[in-house]
Amino acid sequence: MPKVLISVFDKTGIEDFAKGLVALGWEVISTGGTLKALQEAGVNAVSISEVTNFPEIMDGRVKTLHPNVHAGLLADRDVSEHMQTLKEQKIEPIDMVVVNLYPFQEVVSKPEVLEEDAIENIDIGGPTMLRSAAKNHKHVVVVTDPDDYDQILEQLKNGGVSQETKRILMTKVFQTTAEYDTAIAKYFGNSDDLTLNFKKLYNLRYGENPHQKAAFFKDPAVLETSIAKAEILHGKQLSYNNIVDADGALNLIKEFDEPAAAVIKHTNPAGCAIAKNINEAYRKAFQADSKSAFGGIAVMNRPCTKEIAEMINDVFMEVVLAPDFEPSALETLKQKKNIRLIKLGKIEKVKTLKDYRKVVGGILEQDIDRAQINKDTLKVVSQKQPNKKELKQAIFAWKVAKHVKSNAIVLVKGDVTVGVGAGQMSRVDAVEMAVKKAGAKVDGCVVASDAFFPFRDSIDELAKAGITCIIQPGGSIKDEEVIAAANERGMSMIFTGQRAFKH
């Protein structure tokens, strides 16, 4: 009778899997909480203590670290000396291991986690069994992912698990343990070396252009809301550019607690708005630059309603991102075959997160920009003080400007962007572009700039257009000249003291 050793923290699907194995004639050996769950589910499982002839001790820290377990896993069935040793030592071979690990990454991602909690979630026996079984994968099936249960049962019903599948499962084990050890080292250490582990989600049709091969990989260590964790409800597979744009859209919408929506084109917001309800926010965001919105990505931080779905269906949109979709909204949007509908789930973010960018021959690491401003952190440097309405608009404009490619200029009025100048080589060019985009709506706008103004020329242009208030980082050697220009023009100027470049 073949034997399987099951010891899992994540018990998703394990009862049905174990029952399937028993039905195929397997003997189930198990440990601790897994044993209890299986027995309560009616699975005839035996305790690991019956295999080791030794009790589980030290609150379960020591239960599988025993020769009767690891010899049973590591014995090469093709080597007669190994099999003779098992016979002499009265050790039974173990033919399958089903193990997943203590959730170290999840535990240490929680705010204010205690070091003793982190230590208790370092799995020792699990990785050891996985590695033993993976080394001997020619003879032992090693399972660490619940998504593989059905495939394994199906192959067993049809003659046995193939060597190709065993090899794939073995590779998954070493990827899992490498990722796990890296997470532990990163949490406790201050190493100057960087090790990253990513899990491939799927190949893409191509990259930015058809002649470029591409694929999408997931970082399992990132627990906050992301495109890699989102659920595609409808439409064809995301493209490389869709994913890049969708990531930019999601990062922007994470700035807001109130109902907010945006339309993204080439990672820049064509329009962004906040409002009392999500329908109004989306309508304003779309109308901010409806011409540029064509072929864009719609994003919102509240469930997509039927009213929004009907507005989206009137134009061509590549992707719609929302925490969820009302059933009537889904029905409406699914009328278009190729539109991608992405369910984000609850939008969550952590205070600290690393951002990486690959360059030829190296990789750049930085903290993701989670810096926030509020009325207490700002400094008014002009003679004219911004009124309450202007201050609110300035803070909104700044949040959007953080997600516009530099040089970035954002004009806002009434909680909506009316003109965006993005990615220009000079700041005054960005000003001119934003003013042109705003058109007749420019008078009385508040403007945000992601970096300081190096000369007064931009201030003069903004004043001529009718801008009343400017928010910018400050820090130029020409600050006095720029402030003087604002004073001459009767404008209020606010310094944030922080820059918001996005390259």
Describe this structure in a few short sentences.
The protein has 503 residues and is of the alpha/beta class. Helix content is 37%, strand content 20%.
Could you characterize the architecture of this molecule?
The chain has a 6-stranded mixed beta sheet with strand order 8-13-12-11-9-10. Strands 16-21-20-19-17-18 form a 6-stranded mixed beta sheet, with helices on both faces. The chain has a 5-stranded parallel beta sheet with strand order 3-2-1-4-5, sandwiched between helices. The radius of gyration is 29 Å and the shape is elongated. Helix content is 37%, strand content 20%. Strand 12 (317-322), helix 15 and strand 13 form a beta-alpha-beta unit. It is an alpha/beta fold.
Could you give a short account of the major beta sheet?
Answer: 6 strands, mixed
Mean pLDDT: 93
Q: List the total number of helices.
A: 19
What is the first-to-last residue Cα distance?
A: 61 Å
What is the assigned CATH homologous superfamily of the largest domain?
Methylglyoxal synthase-like domain
Tell me how many strands there are.
21
Low-confidence residue ranges: none
What is the class of the largest domain in the CATH system? Alpha Beta
Strand content: 15-25%
CATH topology assignment of the largest domain: Rossmann fold
Helix/strand/pairing category: alpha/beta
Strand order of the largest sheet: 8-13-12-11-9-10
Based on the coordinates given, report the CATH architecture of the largest domain. Answer: 3-Layer(aba) Sandwich
Cα radius of gyration in angstroms: 29 Å
Q: Per the principal axes of the C-alpha atoms, what is the gross shape?
A: elongated
**Percentage of residues assigned to helices:** 25-40%
Number of domains: 3
